Model the fold of this input.
Amino acid sequence: MIELKEITAMQGEFRLSVESLLLKRGDFVAVLGNNGSGKSTFLSVLAGLKKFKGGYMLDGEEFRGLSSRMRHRIISLLPQQTSLNMPFDVHYVVLTGRYPHTDGRGYRDEDMEATERVLREFDIFHLRDRQFNELSGGEKQRVLLARVINRDSPVILLDEPLSGIDLRHQHDTLDLLKRLSKDRVILMVVHDISLAVREFDRFLFFVQGALAYDLSKRELDEERLSRVFGVKVSFIRHERGIFVYTEGGNG
Done:
């Protein structure tokens, strides 16, 4: 689905590098690393929002050869910060996720049906007539997530999507994303290491702009994570999984 080779991108003086990476449908991937390690820049490159050098194949096609409309049909991105201050109601905000599937002249019945379904899945149907600007931070985040999912794209990129969302809706959102990932590629920037280890099976770790590790859950070890985060990371393993805790710095 996604194949990267010798990717480099610049963000001012910051340099992102990914030597090689292969992602396929069914991958539910946590993207981790300290602040400024390149996670958001990486998602921006995948979404086509940042210039890059190197090879990027998307669903068997050269990414640079795809039209902007086709890219938007295949990839949907929820950035870390989204500016949406216009007076739209929740239903319309979520509906706009369907725009890449339209002919540009209006929304179809199937777009309306998909929107209603997503509103219910994210437990925001009761907010459908509320103005987006009147919502709490967590409610806004769920609406923006619903808009991304409503695009129904095979590649979904999420930059800290659980920020501000209460625990119950975090749990429900993760369950929904895991179900969706069965026939999609979903990459999600996560800061909570324990949550990542508990919920994901594949992990991309960035260190100072470079993709340092691409690991499965069984390949995770304390030494590697300690190097990535610059603190001592320890595991407590039990029948329900792995509990992660940190202590101090590595000097």
